[in-house]
Amino acid sequence: MKNSRRSFFKQGLVGAVALGTASISRPVAAIPTETNARAAKRIVLISLDGICVEGYLKAKTPNLDKLMAEGSLSLDTRVVMPSVTLPNWTSHLTGSGPEQHGVVDNSWEISKFTLPAIEKDSAGYYPSVFKVLKDAIPQMKTAFYYNWINLFYPYNKQYLDEVSYLEKDAYVPNYEKAFSFLKANRTDPTLVFLYSVHTDHAGHKYKWMSPEYIRSIEEADVEIGRFIEKIKQEGLYKDTHFMFLTDHGGINYGHGGVSTDEMIVPWGITGPGIKKEFKITEPNNTVNTAAVILHLFKVKQPLSWTGEVIKSIFK
C-alpha cells in the first residue's frame, strides 16, 4: 500500500521562482532577538550531496518521508550559481550567495580565491552561521561532520566544538559521532552539520537517476532512520529541529549548469513550531537556510547576509 505521507509530499515539481537578494555592505554584530517564541534547543542539518528532485521522489526513503511528514517540505528550492558543491554548501551555512562570501567554485581556499568576501573575520573567513551563533550565545555547541575534504575550507575552525572528517565516502561513523555529541550536550543549545558526499559521487560515477544513484540515497535513508531512532530513544527528538538539505541536482554524469535538474532541489524542516505536512510554495533558495537557523535560535543575522526567513513554515 502506498504510504499516505509519502504520496502527500513526494509529488511532481511545482514551477520554481528564483529568490532575489540584495548586497548590504555594512555588517552589524549579531544579538539575541526579542520575541515571545522559545528559542530552539538544537538543530541537526541532515545534508546529502547532489540530490535532485526526481531522484528524491523516486528513491524509497521511508525514514526521510516520515521525518518530513512531521514538518514542511519544498520541492522547488533554487540553488545558487554555479550549481556545484562548495558555493552552495557555503551559501547554506553563511546565509549568502557567492557574490557575498566569494566562494565561486570548488577550488576555493583561504589563500586562493578570485573574489574577496564582502566581510571577513580576523582570520580572513566570511561569517558563518557557526560564528554568528557562537558570538551571540556563548554556551552554543557546534559540530561539523563531513567526508569531502574541500567542504570545510570556508569555515573558521575556531567556531566549531567538534570536527570529524572521513575518507573514501565513509559516513556512518559520523552519524554515530553526531549522536554522541548531541547526547553529551543535551542541555546546551546545539547546531550539528551532518553531511555525506557519497550520493553525489554515485551520480558522477554511474549517472544521475541510475539504479546505483538511487540506491545511494536509499542507503543514506537507512542510516538516517537509525540516527533518528537513537535520538528518540535518548529523549531528544521532541525538542530537536531537523533540516534536510542538499546543494544541487544533476543531469547525466554531472552538474554545474542551469537546467532545472541541476538548479532545483528538495529542502525540508521539522521540529517545534514548524507546520506539519506542509508543502512550501514560497520562493526558497539555499541562502535562506542559515537565516532560518538564526531565526530559530532567536539571533539576528549580519547585514552582509542576504538570506530570508521562510515565514510560511511556522505555525
Task: Please explain how this structure is put together.
By secondary structure, the protein is of the alpha/beta class. The chain has one domain (36-313): Alkaline Phosphatase, subunit A (3-Layer(aba) Sandwich). Helix content is 32%, strand content 15%. An 8-stranded mixed β-sheet has the order 4-3-5-1-6-7-2-8. It starts with a helix and ends in a 19-residue tail after the last helix.
Secondary-structure blueprint:
Layout: H1 4-9, E1 42-48, H2 53-58, H3 62-69, E2 71-78, H4 85-94, H5 98-101, H6 129-136, E3 141-146, E4 162-165, H7 172-184, E5 190-196, H8 198-206, H9 211-233, E6 240-245, H10 260-263, E7 264-270, E8 278-279, H11 288-296
Parallel strand pairs: 1-5, 1-6, 2-8, 3-4, 3-5
Antiparallel strand pairs: 2-7, 6-7
Helix pairs in contact: 4-11, 7-9, 8-9
For CATH, the homologous superfamily is named as: Alkaline Phosphatase, subunit A
Unreliable sequence segments: 1-5, 11-35
pLDDT average, as an integer? 92
Strand order of the largest sheet: 4-3-5-1-6-7-2-8
